[in-house]
Design goal:
- There is one protein chain.
- By secondary structure, this protein is an alpha+beta fold.
- The protein is 27% helix and 25% strand.
- It has helices at residues 14-27, 46-53, and strands at 4-8, 34-38, 59-63, 70-75.
- A four-stranded mixed beta sheet has the order 1-2-4-3, with helices on one face.
- Strand 3 (59-63) and strand 4 (70-75) form a beta hairpin.
- Helix 1 packs parallel to helix 2.
- The radius of gyration is 12 Å and the shape is globular.
- The protein starts with a strand and ends in an 8-residue tail after the last strand.
Length: 83
C-alpha cells in the first residue's frame, strides 16, 4: 500500500517539471492519497509557483506545510476523476 508518494523536482526547468508531475500523477497507484512535491525554495520561486498553480483532474486540493520547499497535493481516489 502506498498512501503517500514523493517527487523531487529540484534542478528541473518549469516545462520538464510540469511533464514529470503530469506523468507522475497519471501513474500513481490508486490507493495514493498524497503526493509530496519537493520543488525547493532557496533557488527561486519558479517551480514552487508552477506546482501551486498546477491543475490536474487527480488533484483534490493543495496543502502548504511548514517546509517552504514542498507542496502537498491531496489526491482524489482514482475512480472519482473526471476526464
Amino acid at each position: 500500500m502506498s498512501y503517500i508518494e514523493t517527487i523531487d523536482l529540484h534542478g528541473e526547468t518549469r516545462e520538464s517539471a510540469r511533464q514529470r508531475l503530469t506523468a507522475t500523477l497519471k501513474a500513481l497507484p490508486k490507493d495514493t492519497r498524497q503526493l509530496v512535491v519537493v520543488h525547493g525554495f532557496h533557488g527561486g520561486n519558479a517551480l514552487r509557483e508552477m506546482v501551486r498553480n498546477f491543475k490536474h483532474p487527480r488533484i483534490e486540493q493543495k496543502s502548504i506545510g511548514l517546509n517552504q520547499g514542498e507542496t502537498i497535493l491531496i489526491i482524489k481516489p482514482k475512480g472519482n476523476t473526471v476526464k
